């Protein structure tokens, strides 16, 4: 039976469109074309040796170091990781059941990853061996450790340092526990506090400690009578300066004895070297080798208000120290002489440092501990010098004058003072204030200069004269033979005369 004609059969077919294959650029073909000798797809192995596509090319052998690190140990070639097999060889525990490894698989890992060790790494007979059969290191004795060179010296040294550190830490902890035991245990024991001691250089305590050994107590005895005073060591030969009234008994009584007492309790005999009753100074010598000598300062450098310290034996109380200030300078002091001797007159340092009977002849020192005066007298409310107790007005002979006179007494045993050759009395009037001349010694310095009775002397050299005592100290401030201008008032008229001072 014939088929009806289809539209295709009725119409003529068109011929296939010819393929246009333009030439391929050689450079692009080299970059994007198949490798030489490959005609098919790239999923087939290329075997240039012609053995076929199933042939696997072996990798080069692994490096020896990697094979030793990651390879099987010797004797473990038969050990491999594998799945446990069952009797059927399918890896299940029982026939017909699922493989055993699937029951113990970790669901969080690859299900095909479980594996077991085929055989133990250690044989059963080796594991059964005890530790006693294993080789042990030799036990080292102390001599072997120290002298057998079995241990490095550095290790021994480090061990010793560690031991010392442990001992030090333990000792510190023990000391801390012992020192803080009361606070740790809550004890109610009252701790004893040490008293604060402030003795800075230049303090009164420091000065007293340095000065006191150079100040001595002087005891003068004659039968039942006696006196007590002080003295100051001024020379390493044993010479000490004091007041004349302290040792005056020894100068008039041959039976009197003088004893010097030092701060350490040493007692020794002393002898009079020389005296100056007019200035109340004397020098004695004690039989002591290398005594402590005081440092001598300059009284001319003092100012009112400077700190001073008095050291002596007031009322027989040895090694007494009192402190005060300089109350006044150039204070002329006159006192009655001892045993009919001439009056005492000196240009004093006034101080409020407490001074009492027995301080006489002691040291008045400045804030450096240097001698600036010899304590001599006090003023009391009764007005009598040397009587009663201190009221804060004491007087000391300036060290400049005392040392000058002491040197002369040591060398010659006596001293001479400059003299003007008059007797004078204090006067105060509307027209003048000074020392009025009562009489003039015939042929004396004043008579030769033309000074007459009734003249009022107001100035000697650079020193003002306001009373008779000040006239005496002003004249004695010069040397014998000095020519000094003297200013005076005669019948209301001022005059100036030059006087050549003589000797007393």
From TrEMBL:
Keyword Transmembrane among UniProt keywords: yes
GO molecular function: serine-type endopeptidase activity
Keywords, in A-Z order: Hydrolase, Membrane, Protease, Transmembrane, Transmembrane helix
An example Gene Ontology biological process: proteolysis
Transmembrane segments: 156-178
Basic and acidic residues composition bias: residue spans: 10-23
PROSITE patterns per the UniProt record, alphabetical: PDZ
Region (Disordered): 1-118
Matches recorded under Pfam families: PDZ_2, Trypsin_2
InterPro entries: Chloro_Bact_Ser_Proteases, PDZ, PDZ_sf, Peptidase_S1_PA, Peptidase_S1_PA_chymotrypsin, Peptidase_S1C
Keyword Protease: yes
Alphabetized Gene3D superfamilies for the sequence: 2.30.42.10, Trypsin-like serine proteases
Highest taxon, organism lineage: Bacteria
Domain called PDZ: residue spans: 407-492
Stated family: Belongs to the peptidase S1C family.
Protein name per its UniProtKB record: Serine protease
The species this protein was found in: Amycolatopsis bartoniae
